[in-house]
Design goal:
Layout lengths: L1 H13 L12 E6 L6 E9 L2 E10 L2 H14 L4 H5 L3 H8 L5 H18 L7 H7 L4
Antiparallel strand pairs: 1-2, 2-3
The structure holds FE2/S2 (inorganic) cluster.
The site of FE2/S2 (inorganic) cluster has 9 residues, from helix 2 and helix 5.
């Protein structure tokens, strides 16, 4: 079972969905994982509170980039309120494999960028994860 999910992650890493950038996006947000310098940039086009188009670019490990790619599939067509309500747990479920504390920052980078762009609960929570992840 895990192998299937790992393959799914690698597939998104190798062929990222919605990769690129939008011309004059309504929302542009970018952030970097402070520990490794890996980066995700996200562009959204929004109409009547709903995302009509999304694109991302970035660089980094397979988990961070696959997570961004998968997240763009969730983002497209969703309302901003639905996206603001996304939690780290939603991202871990989306990835489908157990994410150890050391990789949580990788998995959550794209969600952090999304919430920085549109407002949401996940911004700036690396410190909490650092505490949970102590010792890994
Ligand atoms: Fe940098 Fe994963 S090692 S985001």
């Amino acid at each position: 079972m895990d192998d299937v999910y790992r393959e799914y992650i690698l597939d998104h890493y190798r062929e990222p969905r919605n990769h690129g950038k939008l011309d004059q996006p309504d929302v542009h947000a970018a952030d970097t994982n402070p520990l490794c310098g890996d980066r995700v940039e996200l562009d959204l086009r929004v109409k009547d509170g709903r995302v009509t188009e999304v694109a991302f670019q970035g660089r980094g490990c397979a988990i961070s980039q696959a997570s961004a790619s998968m997240l763009t599939e969730r983002i497209e067509g969703a309302t901003l309120d639905e996206l603001r309500a996304l939690t780290p747990q939603d991202i871990f479920e989306m990835l489908g494999v157990p994410i150890g504390p050391a990789r949580q920052r990788c998995a959550l980078l794209a969600l952090r960028v999304l919430h920085e762009g549109i407002g949401g609960s996940y911004t700036g929570r690396y410190t909490e994860l650092d505490e949970e992840g102590a010792g890994d």
